[in-house]
Amino acid sequence: MTTGRSSVRMGPAEMVQAAAMARRFYLEGKSKIQIAEEFGVSRFKVARVLESALERDLVRIEIRVPAELDAERSDALRARYGLRNAVVVESPEGQASDAPDPENLGAVAAGLLGELVNEGDVLGLAWGRSIITMANALDRLPPCTVVQLTGVYDAGTAERGSVEAVRRAAAVSGGEAHPMYAPMVLPDAATAAALRKQTGIAAAMSYFDKVTVAVVSIGSWEPRVSTVYDALSDAERKHYADLGVAAEMSSHLFDADGRRVGRDLRERCITVDADRLRRVPEVVAIAGGMRKAQAVGAVLRSGLVTSLVTDTAAADHLLNHQSPGPRPALERADPGEA
Amino acid sequence: MTTGRSSVRMGPAEMVQAAAMARRFYLEGKSKIQIAEEFGVSRFKVARVLESALERDLVRIEIRVPAELDAERSDALRARYGLRNAVVVESPEGQASDAPDPENLGAVAAGLLGELVNEGDVLGLAWGRSIITMANALDRLPPCTVVQLTGVYDAGTAERGSVEAVRRAAAVSGGEAHPMYAPMVLPDAATAAALRKQTGIAAAMSYFDKVTVAVVSIGSWEPRVSTVYDALSDAERKHYADLGVAAEMSSHLFDADGRRVGRDLRERCITVDADRLRRVPEVVAIAGGMRKAQAVGAVLRSGLVTSLVTDTAAADHLLNHQSPGPRPALERADPGEA
DNA sequence: CTCCCCAGTGCTCATTTGATTGCCAACATG
DNA sequence: CATGTTGGCAATCAAATGAGCACTGGGGAG
Fold this sequence. Notes:
Two copies of one chain form a homodimer. By secondary structure, the first copy, chain A, is of the alpha/beta class. Chain A folds into two domains: 12-55, Arc Repressor Mutant, subunit A (Orthogonal Bundle); 71-320, Rossmann fold, CATH 3.40.50. Helix content of chain A is 43%, strand content 13%. Chain A contains 15 helices and eleven strands. The radius of gyration of chain A is 25 Å and the shape is elongated. The N and C termini of chain A lie far apart (51 Å). The model of chain A is unreliable at 1-7 and 334-338 (pLDDT under 50). Strand 1 (59-63) of chain A pairs antiparallel with strand 1 (59-63) of chain B. The first copy, chain A, binds a DNA duplex through residues 2-3, 31-33, 42-45, 47-48, 119.
């Protein structure tokens, strides 16, 4: 700032010399002292020349990530919300608020999973469209046990999607699969309790305590954006909406500040407990799109999530219109151990 | 080289983290230690991540110079021939060996002169087409005295070109002009001697010892490529060619090794002595094109020249087909003082 | 099972680097 | 002419950095 202004023009000799020095320094990795000796100037001079070369854009440094990733927002999100990992996927241009999670979200999450999962881990998968997409996009995964964290959502086309996802992940990984053939939301607590005692379901649930990496989805309290919302009656929807539900994750409900609300719902659901989830060293949430942005913020503020895969639209909202809230970064065991 | 291979794929989290670290380091100027603290890793980890980011082209550093300059060849020439400054101008594409010095050469030389000349300097200009071009391209020059170093070449269109160049340079600079109204090559030594006694010419020549920056041109011993060659008779041309003339500069002749030959020619010429030229702290030669490449090499080997402005074609020849010769870099007074 | 190898990590020490300060020359001003 | 000011430059010292080394833990071969 104090020396060469960008406005004063450099002559060709200065330019060429600066370029030569910059080449030595940045591309050939020579030290400034070596360069100073070669050019017969003091090392301070070299430093000044390089500094001004930087100012004048004679040296251009760019950080290139694959086009679909937004490094800047990823980093900002990670820092702001105290996440261990944040990956922001570029939202397709022109696609407005009603776009669901883009295809990319799943593919990128699959890549992230490949990084986070180590051999011997126990991977838990909740329900979610993006999670299905992710499972399909998985191409390699270290050997690990895969367990289903929630019941399935039994409407729409991808009926047994969650089961499929668990099977697919286990197949790619080469490990055991522990799916659950049960709906996520049941008519009443009794039915749910009965189901939980079923051999297969109980077997799967017995792994919940061992899960080292969980993948969850986030929905907002709107039709077609929350699995649970869609599964309830109008009266029930109204009931929970009055509690101030802002987000739903694996059938757990949160208000805008990330506090659990409507805990009674849990009794009717086949899902992993929030407290158990909190003990999972690495919880990856996948959700994107404008409509889910608020919900994602709410869940982040709950402190249940350690990593996030989202898109530009949601990231912008989280960065510009929401605050991380009081809960600091998570203090969990490092997900490194098995 | 030892750590991350370029072939092993990075997951999105690693990618995003590497990008974030690279941004901090390269664009925001944070230290690796700061980055290590922020990300909760050791500074060595940061160093390794940045190193691998460099290997994987996640960080791209490019040295950008104005398109017309060839930084790499400039630097190579400077280093190989021990020059103080070397500037290589991009030869226009497809323009073959018979291209004379491109327009750019003069413009770039003008810029170089603006750098090299300081207030109070005495600038000497020899004859040469590029020097005329250069003078026309001059846009600013510190106040200095401008002296004509050689007589003019009195044929062709730009008849009094050299005089014009001196006047123009003085006008831009705001200093005195000392032109010489005399031809460069004369029929015999007596005529030359008589001319040298002329008031105006003698006045100009009295400045030769004070010249601090000289600009000269280089020609090869061919028609239309050397001013002197064109001014001689066939017999004379043959005579000097038999002496092994490879280059001509301000009516001084050099063989391929940079040794002076045909010194008798000097008697017939109005020009600055080679020995005086050698005492000038900064001698800038301007010459380009394939046909002059050999000649440029010869003059460089004479050690008379401290800086060179040339083009890609000549530079390639100088770098690939010629050697710098025994004479090391010049040991002259720094051109800094007035 | 042991052993070796290998990749990854963090440490130590020597070197490099940046921020600060002091110096000198050029210049404007009283 | 003396003096203050400014700007560029080099020296100093503390912080940052790199190269080499030791440690560890897992995986495969014998």
